């Protein structure tokens, strides 16, 4: 089990907020981060009108094998290199929470910051498997969700369980800027420039 010793305290505590801020939460393994992630962050900042984007490096996705998962400190450092927009804050506060489940994280974020407007951000591939996440219906019922298009997963929203269950709560992407202020359930699918990059591809190229 990795210790916190290699990590600065600023990555282990929940980022500071101010009343009324609009904040996007972008969680991921980032093993390693790549230009596709950067593109998602840029699209989210622009289309959702975010004041901040928390680039949340998970201690380990509960549904993925942790074989070959680079140390958290290494993934954080690589994300910092990628996250050049000053509105982006790289964080790994889930590590100190000793938690990898998004529902628990999001409940803690909301409890700590009742005066901010949050949106959960994920790529379209995660829409397909979202119904396997712990308390996924609770997440969708408490947080607006922005799904960003990804090659290979564009049509996922038509067939995914999440999209079917919450079809009535889908918001037109033209209204994406209003999404953070909507009462959940509310979600949108954002089309735009796309990247075929993946961490798997990079690991394979690097022989890992
Ligand atoms: N090219 C991409 N386009 C859109 N979304 C992406 C892209 N790459 C990753 N994402 C999204 O970014 C978040 C973090 O992704 P993750 O760190 O798992 O990267 P990945 O490339 O999917 O990794 P892996 O190949 O190891 O599964 C997820 O919500 C994922 O859907
Ligand atoms: O809470 C869950 O059950 C859950 C299941 C799968 C993924 N997640 C989270 O989803 C985010 C994206 O994960 P990943 O590995 O696709 O980058 C990351 O923050 C994970 O912790 C969360």
UniProtKB/TrEMBL annotation:
Keyword annotations of the record: ATP-binding, NAD, Nucleotide-binding, Nucleotidyltransferase, Pyridine nucleotide biosynthesis, Transferase
Q: Where is the Cytidyltransferase-like domain?
A: 25-205
**Catalytic activity, as annotated:** nicotinate beta-D-ribonucleotide + ATP + H(+) = deamido-NAD(+) + diphosphate
**Pathway(s) annotated for this protein in UniProt:** Cofactor biosynthesis; NAD(+) biosynthesis; deamido-NAD(+) from nicotinate D-ribonucleotide: step 1/1
Q: What domain of life does the UniProt record list for this protein's source?
A: Bacteria
Keyword Nucleus in the entry? The reply is: no
Family to which this protein belongs: Belongs to the NadD family.
- Designated name of the protein: Probable nicotinate-nucleotide adenylyltransferase
Protein source organism: Rhizobium aquaticum
């Amino acid at each position: 089990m990795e210790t916190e010793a290699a990590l600065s305290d600023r990555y282990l505590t929940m980022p500071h907020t101010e009343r009324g801020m609009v904040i996007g939460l972008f969680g991921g393994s980032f093993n390693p981060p790549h230009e596709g992630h950067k593109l998602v962050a840029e699209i989210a900042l622009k289309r959702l009108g975010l004041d901040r984007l928390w680039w949340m490096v998970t201690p380990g996705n509960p549904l993925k094998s942790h074989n070959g998962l680079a140390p958290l400190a290494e993934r954080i450092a690589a994300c910092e290199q990628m996250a050049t927009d000053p509105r982006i804050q790289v964080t790994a506060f889930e590590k100190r929470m000793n938690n990898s489940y998004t529902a628990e994280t999001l409940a803690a974020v909301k409890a700590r910051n009742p005066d901010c407007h949050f949106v959960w951000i994920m790529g379209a591939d995660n829409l397909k498997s979202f119904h396997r996440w712990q308390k996924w219906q609770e997440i969708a019922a408490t947080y607006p969700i922005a799904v960003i298009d990804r090659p290979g997963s564009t049509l996922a929203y038509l067939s995914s369980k999440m999209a079917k269950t919450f079809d009535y709560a889908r918001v037109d992407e033209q209204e994406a800027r209003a999404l953070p202020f909507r009462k959940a359930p509310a979600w949108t699918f954002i089309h735009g420039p796309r990247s075929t990059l993946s961490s798997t591809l990079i690991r394979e190229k690097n022989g890992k």
